[in-house]
Amino acid sequence: MSGPLQAALAEIADDTNKLLAELLPDPTPLGEERKLVEAMRYAVLGPGKRFRPFLTVAAAAATGGDHTRALHAGAAIECLHAYSLVHDDLPAMDDDDMRRGRPTVHKEYDEATAILAGDALQTEAFCILAMPETHPDANVRLELTRGLAVASGAHGMCGGQALDLAAEGEASDMASDIGWAIRMQRLKTGALISFACEAGAILGQANGQARAALYGYGMDIGLAFQIADDLLDLEGDEEQVGKRLAKDAEAGKATLPGAMGIPEARLYAQTLVRQAVAKLDCFGSSANLLRDAARFSLQRQS
Amino acid sequence: MSGPLQAALAEIADDTNKLLAELLPDPTPLGEERKLVEAMRYAVLGPGKRFRPFLTVAAAAATGGDHTRALHAGAAIECLHAYSLVHDDLPAMDDDDMRRGRPTVHKEYDEATAILAGDALQTEAFCILAMPETHPDANVRLELTRGLAVASGAHGMCGGQALDLAAEGEASDMASDIGWAIRMQRLKTGALISFACEAGAILGQANGQARAALYGYGMDIGLAFQIADDLLDLEGDEEQVGKRLAKDAEAGKATLPGAMGIPEARLYAQTLVRQAVAKLDCFGSSANLLRDAARFSLQRQS
Q: Which residues of chain A lie closer than 8 angstroms to B112, CB-CB?
């Protein structure tokens, strides 16, 4: 990883963690709903790269958006992402016991608390976006709200999760279809990553061309990132990654390495990264962090 | 039920159903995520009183808010309410097989689809509120967005559900504490009902006094409505109500009839209704529907 990228990732992760610790409800003065709030904080404030907030901040930097506001919007997107992980780990979904080296929320607390904590974290995401700290212009905040809703609803993340489950049920037919697997990943993880990039451009009140470029960049690196994740699942070191591996393959899940083969998927990810970097040509050096991040997505170890 | 109330409830329910049928995603052009969208529609478009949209429309009428915009905001609140029912019925939560005379979503589809459909319905609620059709003024839409988030998150509905679950775990101590049961109900169902009333006032851009009056009215009738619901659970006719009864008592759930006794709870609900109606004194005849609705909350049969 390049020095500037490493420093920026660390700094934005640190700032995001501090902001989230302030923004999330405080359990101390509460009654028995304390457990819910503790589970929400457990889900969000645990270890994590804060890659989506990083993308929002870096895309804002490329389009003249304010750094502090971008951190605020990034914190909202991180809450949305955290909720999706909590629900995705539930027994009725992926049934995962470990996440980022710690017990998943329904293991650390219980299933009902995990359902409610995920629900309340989604609410929190929209609550944070609607705050004036995100942007003084109400129209900008509303555009972010609409964008987050579209990226995470039935035509975005939730739709992708439904596709993923459908493939698992029907086994090999869909899981081996490359076009199908790409569509599933673009919805399941790509939509929110693209929105994280576009959100920076919305905050920078960038023109349509710049917004589309950042959205497209997000789609490309989102898919490259997912391929890297799937390759880790197949080839990674369990201790370093912090969760049980080779699980997707066992469950017959649709992945691109599974559908097209490991070497082909690696090559495809490289093509996506080059394509993503090319989309940033209109930005000059203000987008250097985004360029570095695209290249880094291929070298993930955890 | 009074004639004008019955007519208004039926008309608003009908308009809300038509609007929701248009606003919710269309399953026909979709791939395997069709099932998710069908489950969302099943959850929302089934039988239901549309009591929350009614309150929003009636509160808008009392404060000079636009009828069509209030229907739009009401549709968003109904999506939020529907998501909470889908998740509340899950095996890890209340574990209900029937809802409004039909199989619950996880019974009609499956558990994973029910989790995702609830998630996507919450997203849809915020998406609908952010649409210009809700109100042309972006600040009004943002106020509604913040309001819905606060009413439904950890300090509102989700917090109330967590309290409800906590009582079930620890049995009699909390369930028999009247103050505790009131707080739980105010969060679990009161917060969203109050917000449905306040939303009408926000759309009518009413002054602080009118907003507070409608919010307080919502709190009072929300609790009266819940007591009526709990009395139905204890004394109602299973076929007419459309779900299994006496379930809360068996589960050791905290209810006000359980905590204070049935005759006392009935008296308390009557006091709440009188108090709610008194809060409407500042509105004159424009609030007659709200007055009728308050009185009706005591006479529910289903």
A: 92-93, 165
Q: What is the CATH number of the domain that holds A31?
A: 1.10.600.10
From A113's Cα to the closest Cα of chain B, the distance in A is: 7
Query: In the prediction, which pLDDT does A133 show?
Result: 97
Check if A23 contacts B (Cβ < 8 Å): no
| Mean pLDDT confidence for A154-161 | 96
**Number of structural domains in chain A:** 1
Tokens 């028995």 -> residue? A32
Question: What CA–CA distance (Å, rounded) separates A225 from B164?
Answer: 41
- Supply the pTM of this predicted model: 0.95
Residue of B112, B145, B161 lying closest to A116 (CB–CB)? B161
Distance CA B66, CA B158 (A): 30
Nearest CA in chain B to A27: B154
What is the mean pLDDT of the segment spanning A68-86? 98
pLDDT, tens digit, 9 for 90 and up, residues A4-52? 999 999 999 999 999 999 999 999 888 888 999 999 999 999 999 999 9
**CA dihedral of residues A215, A216, A221, A223 (deg, nearest 10):** 110
Q: What is the pLDDT of residues B107-130, one digit of tens each?
A: 999 999 999 999 999 999 999 999
Indicate the SS3 state at residue A190. helix
Query: In terms of residue numbers, what domain contains A166?
Result: 3-299
Helix (H, G, I), strand (E, B) or coil at B131: coil
- Is the Cβ of A123 closer than 8 Å to some Cβ of chain B? yes
pLDDT per position as a tens digit, B21-51: 999 999 988 888 899 999 999 999 999 999 9
CB A297 within 8 A of CB A225: yes
Collapsing DSSP to helix, strand or coil, A254 comes out as coil
Inform me whether the C-beta atom of residue B147 falls under 8 Å from chain A C-beta atoms. Answer: no
Contacts of B152 in chain A (CB under 8 A): 123
- By CA distance, what is B168's nearest residue in A? A32
Helix axes B3-23, B34-45, angle to 10 degrees: 170
Burial of A235 (0-12, 13-18, 19+ CB in 10 A): exposed
Asked if B23 has any chain A CB less than 8 Å from its own CB, the reply is no
What is residue A26's DSSP assignment? P
Q: Which residue has the tokens 């739709």?
A: A159
How far is the C-alpha of A273 from the C-alpha of A295, rounded, in Å?
Answer: 6
* Inter-residue contact A7 to A295 (CB < 8 Å): no
Q: Minimal Cα–Cα distance from A233 to chain B, Å?
A: 23
Residues 6+ apart with CB under 8 A from A204: A59, A60, A62, A63, A64, A65, A210
| A77: chain B residues, CB-CB within 8 Å | none
Q: Taking phi first (over 0 means left), then psi (-120 to 50 degrees means alpha), and beta for anything else, what does residue A72 get?
A: alpha
DSSP assigned state of B66:
-
**What's the pLDDT score for residue B251?**
64
Spell out the alpha helix ranges (H) of A131-246.
Answer: 138-152, 157-170, 172-175, 178-185, 191-203, 208-235, 238-241
Cα-Cα-Cα-Cα dihedral of A57, A58, A60, A61, to 10°? 120
